[in-house]
Amino acid sequence: RTVLVLNGPNLRRLGTREPDVYGAETFDDLAALCRETGRGLGLDVEVRQTDDEAEMVGWVHEAADGRVPVVLNPAAFTHYSYALRDALAQRTAPLIEVHISNPAAREEFRHTTVVAGVATGTIAGFGLRSYVLALHAVAGLLADEDG
Ligand code: DQA
Question: Which Gene Ontology molecular function entries are recorded, alphabetically (predicted)?
Answer without folding.
Answer: 3-dehydroquinate dehydratase activity
